[in-house]
Write a structure and sequence with these properties.
Shape: globular
Radius of gyration: 26 Å
Order of helices and strands: HHHHHHHHHHHHHHHHHHHHHH
Number of helices: 22
Distance between the termini: 37 Å
Helix content: over 70%
Number of strands: 0
């Protein structure tokens, strides 16, 4: 027990040190942790350590994906959903099939089904590994696409892995595989969304921020476990619960609960991500020893892994190039509608113009358009204009395409999924080593060069112009807050000296103003009319102001 405690404490210290030292050395902290793990694997204390893959797949990934989904700007996810779904499904399936053919040809006696199984293991990018990209100068659209892809592609890969394993013992059915995948995703989304709504319904009634955060730690597992029992994807369920929570929490939870959640989840992310990379490195010795015990060659396995990594990058590049062309043409078509949407939007600015527009639309119609329908149309127009501006401000060119291709790193999911292969898998130790080598080389080669590569290809920007644009954005947000706050009527002032009643009245008024400002900012967030990061800072400032006002006058324990 003492040795285990020492290992845990040492691991936490190493994770904290790597997080601080890595950036100062110009090296991403995940790479530092993998290197430390590899070095530690040769120490006697770590020679007997074996990591159960279920601990990663069912114990670590659900909270990590949930936390990423909560913090991801929902509007950016919606805007990039077409690209995200293609990267998460089409690219993963295509890569797995091509890699399956490659593995069948280079590994004697493996067979196509087992090749596809290994291809499914190697195909998905890793949510933890892609965290490296956030430390580089890259477009926000690229970050949104990579975040969304890594949130969803694990489910595609794991369902494909199960299907391929079943196909080794029974006849393969294409439509059966499609049905299995659809069932896995749909059921997971339903379960996860339901858990997300119930989670908020319960937590908004819990006033203690500490208890509230403890409950939040259980949400990804409460979503994932029932989904897995129903034969669906627990990871997709955790992501769905996170998206629902991230969208609704600012409207449902108190400022203190949101602040507590944010701080504690950042700590959990740091520890779990660090543990994933450390355990990847620690397992290298046992994996190599298993291959040697089976009298298989380590060298050929590493060469095959290098070939597989090159193939994944080439397939990814071949998919990304036409995808960017499609997205560019879609943005150009949308921009052509901008003048028409502006005209329609101008007709929705006042109640009188809304009434006239409703009267014009209702002429000669059997079904009358209500004012509610018109409000929905106005919201859609506002979002459409915001989307056009977003795509205009963040175009996708060859530089962004290069970033998306090179940032598709493999990581802990690949290693854990490989170790979940059945014992009777042909040449199992070799397949596990190949998967590990692909993940390790991906992190070292792609993760180690992505920063310098992006700095090299990214053109110099006019920082003064960027600062001016950000200042103008903040000014528009402040104006929105000012006008929404003015809509809250001020309380009547009592005669004479201000007393406790006046203090409480002023406090309630200030909180009501903050509530109105938050509601206006959240409506703007849902419509996508402001930059997500600037808006998040404004909401955080409102939370800080609300906490300060609520604590004013309270007795100190």
């Amino acid at each position: 027990m003492t040795e285990l405690l020492v290992l845990i404490v040492t691991g936490l210290v190493v994770i904290a040190a790597a997080t601080v030292v890595g950036p100062r050395l110009g090296i991403a902290s995940p790479l530092v942790l993998v290197a430390i793990g590899v070095a530690a694997s040769f120490l006697p204390a770590f020679s007997e350590i074996e990591i159960e893959p279920e601990w990663i797949l069912a114990g670590i990934l659900p909270p990590l994906l949930y936390s990423s989904a909560v913090s991801m700007p929902a509007m950016n996810f919606r805007r990039e959903f077409g690209a995200i779904s293609g990267l998460s499904v089409v690219l993963v399936v295509g890569s797995a099939l091509l890699l399956g053919l490659f593995f069948m040809l280079v590994i004697p006696g493996l067979g196509f089904a087992w090749g596809v199984a290994l291809g499914a293991i190697v195909s998905p990018t890793d949510a933890v590994a892609t965290s490296i990209i956030k430390q580089t100068p890259v477009s926000k659209r690229v970050v949104a696409m990579l975040d969304g892809e890594s949130l969803l592609n694990d489910a595609t890969a794991l369902v494909l892995l199960r299907t391929a394993i079943v196909a080794t013992a029974a006849s393969f059915s294409f439509w059966g595989a499609v049905g299995t995948f659809a069932y896995s995703v749909i059921v997971a989304v339903i379960v996860g969304s339901l858990v997300g709504w119930i989670n908020l319904a319960i937590r908004r009634r819990v006033t203690d921020p500490t208890v509230n955060t403890v409950i939040s730690f259980t949400v990804p597992f409460i979503a994932a476990i029932p989904a897995e029992l129903l034969g669906a994807s627990g990871l997709v369920a955790a992501v769905a619960a996170g998206l629902v929570t991230g969208i609704r929490a600012p409207r449902e939870l108190s400022a203190q609960n949101r602040l507590s959640d944010s701080q504690n989840w950042r700590t959990v992310e740091l520890v779990l991500e660090g543990a994933v990379f450390l355990t990847m490195g620690v397992q290298i010795r046992s994996i190599v020893e298993n291959v040697e015990a089976d009298h298989a060659g380590v060298g050929p396995a590493v060469v095959i892994a290098a070939g597989a990594l090159v193939l994944t990058i080439l397939v990814r590049a071949a998919y990304i190039a036409p995808l960017l062309g499609f997205l560019h043409s879609r943005s150009r078509r949308s921009a052509q509608l901008q003048s028409r949407l502006n005209d329609m939007n101008s007709k929705m600015t006042t109640s009188e113009s809304k009434r006239q527009a409703m009267d014009e639309a209702n002429r000669g119609r059997g079904r009358k358009i209500s004012e509610r329908d018109l409000d929905r149309l106005a919201t859609r127009i506002t979002r459409g204009l915001a989307d056009i501006e977003y795509f205009r401000r963040e175009p996708l060119g060859w530089r962004e395409g290069t970033a998306v291709v090179w940032a598709g790193m493999r990581g802990a999911v690949t290693v854990a999924a490989a170790q979940s292969l059945p014992i009777e898998t042909p040449q199992r130790s070799v397949l596990v080593l190949i998967a590990f080598a692909v993940a390790a080389m991906s992190l070292v080669v792609q993760g180690g060069t992505i920063g310098p590569l992006l700095r090299f290809i990214t053109p110099k920007v006019d920082q003064a112009a960027l600062d001016q644009e950000a200042g103008a954005e903040r000014g528009r947000i402040l104006e929105l807050m000012r006008t929404s706050g003015l809509a809250v009527p001020e309380p009547s002032r009592p005669d004479g000296e201000p007393g406790p009643q006046h203090f409480e009245s002023a406090k309630r008024h200030r909180l009501a103003v903050l509530a109105a400002q938050r509601s206006a900012l959240l409506d703007a967030r849902d419509n996508g009319t402001f930059d997500a990061d600037v808006l998040a800072n404004a909401l955080a400032n409102l939370d800080a102001a609300q906490i300060a006002i609520e604590m004013r006058g309270k007795p100190v324990d």
